[in-house]
Amino acid sequence: MAKSVPTEFKLNSGITIPAVGLGTWQSQPGQVEKAVEHAIKSGYRLIDGALCYGNEEEVGKGIKASGVPREELFLTSKLWCTYHDRVEECLDITLKDLGTDYLDLYLIHWPVRTVENGSSKLFPTKPDGSRNIDRKWDQAETWRQMEAVLAKGKVKAIGVSNFSELYLERLSKTWKVVPAVNQVELHPYNPQHKLKAYCDSKGIRLEAYSPLGSAGSPLHDDPVIKKIADKHGVSVATVLISYQVNRGVVVLPKSVTPSRIDDNKKVIALDEDDMKALDGLAASGKQTRFVTPPWGNDFGFENWFGPGTDAPEGFVFESRGQTFE
Ligand SMILES: NC(=O)c1ccc[n+]([C@@H]2O[C@H](COP(=O)([O-])OP(=O)(O)OC[C@H]3O[C@@H](n4cnc5c(N)ncnc54)[C@H](OP(=O)(O)O)[C@@H]3O)[C@@H](O)[C@H]2O)c1
Where is this site: Lowers pKa of active site Tyr (predicted)? Predict the structure, then answer.
């Protein structure tokens, strides 16, 4: 009998989440409304957004235009870094922009608090151009405020994003609610096997961002991945999306192209050989991260590789020209 693949997963809060959702980062004004409308009309129920993407009002219009009732959708958004001391205020902006009175899932976008200083509302910088980060801020306080909006019923589940094992361990000292989700960069060049094992052990569901390797991705040309795609007669994108679902991870491909949005819904069962090949690609010398916002090296390396750890050989602290705005 053919192996079946899940279409949804259970979160530790008891609610279910669709296995595949539409990403909206870098979906431009004038495109994102149509993309969201098309996605929902064609069967997507999970939409992944964030205040800092600057497009939630249009995402909201797309949701409305789809005609699908709110309660059938699963809406995720993220607390931006300048709001760590004002979680409810940030959430209220998102709710208003999306045109809804609750979220299904609200995440701390990054374990970093930045402080407004008049340079920029969302991306405040110091005179030397580096981000104006409050390095003394305790994430325990941010999480306490996340727990408060959950208790108020404004969100159905809370979670984190870009949290390493180290950051989760620190948070676990004071959390009352275990994060339902940790959304991190995941694809065969950055599978984060150790973080996955850790999150599995705590009942925290991983979500894969940049599952296709983001814009301009080299993953589409990888011979190992192409071979698996050819074997199953599907696109490379389908293999990359299916890889995450087959390992129990929620996956969030972004597209504003209707044909790709349709293709990205497709999930196939991968066999043991496929999974072994995909699981081993990073360790074979291809380890790469594609999303590396300029938080500063001290934060970045500690966050991603553990305290006092240098970046692995070959690691490049650049994001191929992408900015995080
Ligand atoms: N929590 C975080 O810090 C964080 C960080 C990054 C991303 N995210 C979330 O994760 C989502 C996905 O990540 P991402 O946007 O970085 O990248 P991605 O989904 O890995 O890749 C998106 C890129 O791939 C293209 N694409 C989409 N489907 C394709 C297909 N079937 N074949 C070929 N190319 C295809 C898209 O082009 P077109 O749009 O032109 O079709 C776009 O250029 C984001 O949108 C966001 O919701 C979260």
Answer: 78
